[in-house]
C-alpha cells in the first residue's frame, strides 16, 4: 500500500514536468506568457525579388517567438494602399511596434500620424520615406541608393574609359528610393560623359518577368546597346533570358550591371553573365531586433543608420565568399 501511495505521490509531483515537456500543444501558453511576447506588425513591400524574400526571412528569423517576439507579417504586393491598410490594422490590434518597408517615398504622413496618436513606435527599413514631420517615425535603417548608383558608374568609368556606351536602363518601382538613387547615379554618369548615351529606359518593377519583357522589346526594336544597367538582380535575370533567346551572350556581347548581390546573381558573376553587382544588404532582421531591444530599455536608437555595402565583380568574388553570405 505504502509503495502504491509513494508511486501515486511521485506521479502527481511529476505531472507538471511531464506536461511541460509536451510542448505548447499540451500546455497552451498562459495569457501572461503571451503578454511577454513583443508584438511587431511588419508591413512588407511584397515578394517581388530575391532581395525581398531574403529581407522577409531575416525579419522572421530575428523576430521569432524563441527570441520573444510575435511577428505579424503583411505582404502589400507592391501597393502602397495595402500598406496603409495594414498599418491601420496593426494600430487596431494594438501592436507594440510597427516596422514599415515602404513601397514609395511619399504618402505616409497621414497614417504615421495615426500610429503616433496611438503611441506605437514606427521603424522604417530599407527604402526612405519623404515626410515633413520626422517625429512620425522613430528611426530608419537602410541603404544609400545614390551611393550604390555612384559605385556602378565609377566601375563603368574604370572598365570602359572613354569608350562610347549605349545603355539600356531597367528601373525599379518608380518613386521608390532604390529606383530614385540608382537612377540619379546613372544620370550623373550620363551628364559627365558626352559619349555615354541612354538607349532605353523603363521600369521593370524589380521583377524578372518585366525585365525580360522590356529586354525582348529592346531587342525587337533593333536598339543599339552595349551595357545593361539593371536596378536589381531579378530584372537582370529576365534580361539575360531575353538575350540568350536572341542568341546573344551576356558578358561577351553586352556588359550587364545589377544591384542587390543575391547569391544567384553572384554565381552569374562567376559564370561571366553579370559583370558587376552592387551590394544592397537585405538582412535587416537582427538590426531591427537590436533597435527594439534599445527601445525596450528606454534608450534612443540613431535616427538614421546606413548599412555598409560593397560591390562584386570577377576580381573580388569567390565561391567561398558567396557561401559565406547570408543570402
Ligand atoms: C533595395 C530594395 C529593392 C531591391 C529589389 O533596398 O528596396 O527592392 O533592390 C527589391 O530587389 O525589390
Mean pLDDT: 92
Order of helical and strand elements: HHEHEHEHEEHEHEHEHEHEHEEH
End-to-end separation:
64 Å
Shape designation: elongated
Annotated CATH homologous superfamily of the largest domain: Response regulator
Q: Can you tell me the CATH topology of the largest domain?
A: Rossmann fold
- Biggest β-sheet description: 6 strands, parallel
Structural class: alpha/beta
Q: Give the count of structural domains.
A: 2
Order of strands in the sheet with most strands: 2-1-3-4-5-11
Instruction: Specify the number of helices.
Output: 12
Bound molecules: beta-D-galactofuranose
Structural account:
With 327 residues, this protein is of the alpha/beta class. It folds into two domains: 37-142 and 282-296, 3-Layer(aba) Sandwich (Rossmann fold); 145-280 and 313-323, Response regulator (Rossmann fold), CATH 3.40.50. The protein contains twelve helices and twelve strands. It has helices at residues 2-20, 31-36, 50-62, 80-93, 109-117, 145-160, 177-192, 208-220, 233-245, 263-270, 285-296, 319-324, and strands at residues 38-44, 69-75, 97-100, 122-126, 139-142, 165-171, 196-203, 227-230, 255-260, 276-279, 304-306, 311-312. The strands form two sheets. The chain has a six-stranded parallel beta sheet with strand order 2-1-3-4-5-11, with helices on both faces. It has a six-stranded mixed beta sheet with strand order 7-6-8-9-10-12, sandwiched between helices. Helix 6 runs parallel beside helix 7 (177-192). It is elongated. Residues 1-5 and 14-26 have low confidence and may be disordered. The chain binds beta-D-galactofuranose. Residues 48-49, 51-52, 126-127, 143, 178, 206, 232, 259-260, 280 line the site of beta-D-galactofuranose. Beta-D-galactofuranose is lined by residues 48-49, 51-52, 126-127, 143, 178, 206, 232, 259-260, 280.
Amino acid at each position: 500500500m505504502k509503495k502504491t501511495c509513494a508511486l501515486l505521490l511521485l506521479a502527481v509531483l511529476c505531472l507538471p514536468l511531464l506536461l511541460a515537456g509536451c510542448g505548447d500543444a499540451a500546455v497552451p501558453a498562459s495569457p501572461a506568457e503571451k503578454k511577454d511576447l513583443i508584438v511587431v506588425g511588419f508591413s512588407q513591400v511584397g515578394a517581388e525579388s530575391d532581395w525581398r524574400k531574403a529581407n522577409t526571412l531575416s525579419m522572421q528569423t530575428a523576430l521569432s517567438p524563441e527570441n520573444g517576439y510575435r511577428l505579424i507579417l503583411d505582404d502589400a504586393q507592391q501597393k502602397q494602399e495595402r500598406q496603409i491598410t495594414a498599418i491601420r490594422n496593426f494600430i487596431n490590434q494594438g501592436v507594440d511596434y510597427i516596422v514599415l518597408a515602404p513601397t514609395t517615398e511619399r504618402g505616409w504622413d497621414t497614417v504615421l500620424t495615426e500610429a503616433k496618436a496611438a503611441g506605437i513606435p514606427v521603424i522604417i527599413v530599407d527604402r526612405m520615406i519623404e515626410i515633413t514631420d520626422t517625429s512620425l517615425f522613430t528611426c530608419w535603417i537602410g541603404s544609400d541608393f545614390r551611393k550604390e548608383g555612384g559605385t556602378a558608374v565609377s566601375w563603368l568609368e574604370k572598365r570602359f574609359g572613354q569608350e562610347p556606351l549605349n545603355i539600356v536602363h531597367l528601373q525599379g518601382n518608380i518613386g521608390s528610393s532604390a529606383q530614385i538613387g540608382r537612377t540619379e547615379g546613372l544620370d550623373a554618369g550620363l551628364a559627365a560623359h558626352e559619349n555615354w548615351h541612354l538607349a532605353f529606359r523603363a521600369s521593370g518593377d524589380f521583377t524578372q518577368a518585366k525585365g525580360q519583357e522590356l529586354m525582348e522589346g529592346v531587342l525587337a526594336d533593333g536598339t543599339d546597346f552595349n551595357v545593361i544597367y539593371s536596378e536589381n538582380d531579378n530584372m537582370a535575370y529576365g534580361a539575360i533570358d531575353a538575350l540568350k533567346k536572341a542568341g546573344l551572350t551576356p558578358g561577351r556581347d553586352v556588359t550587364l550591371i545589377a544591384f542587390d548581390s543575391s547569391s544567384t546573381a553572384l554565381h552569374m558573376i562567376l559564370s561571366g553573365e553579370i559583370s558587376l553587382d552592387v551590394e544592397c544588404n537585405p538582412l535587416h532582421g537582427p538590426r531591427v531586433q537590436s533597435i527594439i531591444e534599445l527601445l525596450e530599455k528606454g534608450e534612443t536608437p540613431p535616427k538614421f543608420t546606413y548599412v555598409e555595402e560593397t560591390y562584386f565583380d570577377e576580381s573580388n568574388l569567390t565561391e567561398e565568399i558567396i557561401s559565406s553570405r547570408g543570402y
